Amino acid sequence: MCGIVGYVGNKNAQDFLVSGLKRLEYRGYDSAGIVTLSDEGTATLIRAKGNISNLEEKLAQNKRNDKIGIGHTRWATHGEPSEINAHPHQAGKIFLVHNGIIENYKELKKTLNEHEFKSETDTEVLAALINSFYKDGQHPLTNAVVQALKLVKGTYGIAVVSELDPTEIVVARSGSPLIVGVGHDETLIASDASALVGHTKQAIYLNDGEVARLTKNSIEIKTLSAEPVSAKVEEIETNLAAIQKGGYDHFLLKEIMDQPESLTETLRGRIHAEDGTVRLGGPGLSETELRKIKHLIIVGCGTAYHAGLLAGYYIEKFTPEITIETVIASEYRYRQAYIPENSVALIVSQSGETADTLACLREIKKQGVKTIGIVNAIGSTIAREVDGGTYVHVGPEISVASTKAFTSQVVAMVMFGLTIAQAKGVRNSILRPYVSEIAKLPSEIAKVLESNRDLVQEIASQYKDFEHAIYLGRDTAYPTAMEGSLKLKEISYIDANAYAFGELKHGPLALIDDRFFEIAFLPDGELYEKAVSNVQEVLARGGKIVAITNVDKFDLDVENVVKIATELKIFAPILMNLISQLFAYYITVAKGLNVDQPRNLAKSVTVE
Ligand code: F6R
Fold first, then answer.
1. 38, 392, 579, 591: most buried by Cβ count inside 10 Å?
2. Considering its fold, how many domains does the chain have in total?
3. Residue 329 Cα, ligand 1 centroid: separation in angstroms?
4. Could you count the other beta carbons within 10 Å of the beta carbon of residue 394?
5. Residue 500's domain is classified under what CATH number?
6. Is residue 417 part of a domain?
């Protein structure tokens, strides 16, 4: 949600800021801006509504060779997307970029009568507040920032520069990530490591409550209460190939097609098909602790929540005496839920920064419950705050809609479930089929994607003018249907909802008419015949069904069928979800919409 970049060094700051903002555009893209300072301290502030290319057009008329600057790409929270609301915001001689939300900005604003507010943003209030302590340079910038932040309620990742000292950037974070890139005679900042790739491999991840003064060859970090912090320099793992489109038209298609490789990374060293076992190092639970687990809480938002639901369906099939509760983080954080003894919480997040998920993690930890992260972004806040964890290692997801992370999150959680089952002494003959299917998943995914891509594209084009869709499934195909409907609505804007097949006749069946089409997930298995009867009910009411099945002899008279040829039985729903991903992608392309940056959304939701 929003992106921050900053540069101080000997090179052209505009160049880094623009290239960094382009890399972060997926985080927010309704307006953008940069400010750079000349050696004498003259500021050039350029902002534009819309995406970074609009900013670039303006910059082409205002080329500067300044060596210090900060930039921002915005996803609006306070105030509509417009040039005036875009960051950086100015107050006196200082300029500020900010990710997060200042919750008490209205009260603070009342105390800042000397500043003439131009925007509707909470960020400008923070800029004015910092300036009120800075008093046009009478106090060091770092002190002014610290004094202001002590009055702030909310979340922030910020970067501040002043015309009075064009050699320093002050940064701080609380609840919104900030990374300092350590270069040779240059220091860079970014809210996401992808902006730093190709510039430096060394980074310092700021912690909540820390503030840093950066110059081109010094980094001084302190806490808000002035305790010095000795910085830990870490290696950035992302590489350039991982953040480029690699020949595909869109990041989304690249990320869908990447799944054989990304899942291979998730499985590396963890799955042992030869003896039918799983070995996970990260959770850090002893055999005794694993054996004692009686209850699993799985927490996530959106796609991560769906991954948790699907994994929960699987884990309860092979793990005895365990209850599983998958919850939506934004709800759970405010519930007064009782957590039974011997519970473990799985905290699921691709970005590792989602505000609601992070808040749940902190609440759950307060109750003394062990927390295990199922996270993708290395070094992210959730990854650092959980007691143990399993990184999914899928590499950066740039497209806003989550695809490869979902597949790997499900499998990582199933592997955690298998680890519990092993410790509880479940017979290898029961667990082995799961392990052996997981080991085969990457190659089956490759087959399914390659062999169905064209067919799905053709089918998708038939439904591009529909306004409503219903996704249907039962058992493991039900969370699969939920995830499919989310993917469709978020990128194609087709109103899509998911129902458990068994719920149809309790209400949703009334919807079926010409304006709707239905996607039915029909995996082979015990409940297949029941699901087929449900399909008949829809057909009898004139439903237009697209069936996705792995049953070769499927012969119902539906409008379209995608038959998945696979030897996998247990994890066929994961393969069916690939069809949903391709379907959503191709329908969105057919509608001519922005696939990678759907309206109103941002990749990492660091505000509540
Ligand atoms: C949907 C999507 C979102 C995220 C959700 C959680 O395609 O991307 O629903 O899954 O915002 O994000 P993370 O996993 O980063 O916590």
1. 392
2. 3
3. 11
4. 27
5. 3.40.50.10490
6. yes
- Which ligand 1 atom sits closest to the C-alpha of 604? 15
CA of 394 to the centre of ligand 1 (A): 14
Domain extent for 590: 452-594
Ligand 1 atom closest to the CA of 350, numbered from 1: 14
Residue 28 has pLDDT above 70, yes or no: no
The owner of tokens 């143990």 is: 388
Residues 398 and 504 grouped into a single domain:
no
pLDDT in tens, 74-99: 887 778 889 999 999 999 999 999 99
Name the residue with the closest Cα to ligand 1, atom 3: 302
Instruction: Label the pairing between strands 218-223 and 343-349.
Output: unpaired
How far apart are the CA of 483 and the centre of ligand 1, in A? Answer: 11
Q: Of 38, 39, 85, whose CA–CA distance to 62 is shortest?
A: 38
399 lies in the same domain as 478 = no
Taking each helix axis from N to C end, the angle separating 572-590 and 477-492, rounded to the nearest 10 degrees, works out to: 20
Q: Are 520 and 539 in contact (CB under 8 A)?
A: no
Report DSSP letters for 12-32, one per residue. -HHHHHHHHHHHHGGG--SEE
Residue 443 counted as domain residue: no
- Nearest atom within ligand 1 for CA of residue 603: 8
Whether 603 is catalytic: yes
355 and 214 in a single domain? The answer is no
Kindly list the protein residues whose Cβ atom lies closer than 6 A to any atom of ligand 1: 301-304, 349-351, 354, 357, 401-402, 486, 490, 604-605
Nearest CA to ligand 1 atom 5: 302
Mean pLDDT of 356-371: 95
Q: Model's pTM, two decimal places?
A: 0.85
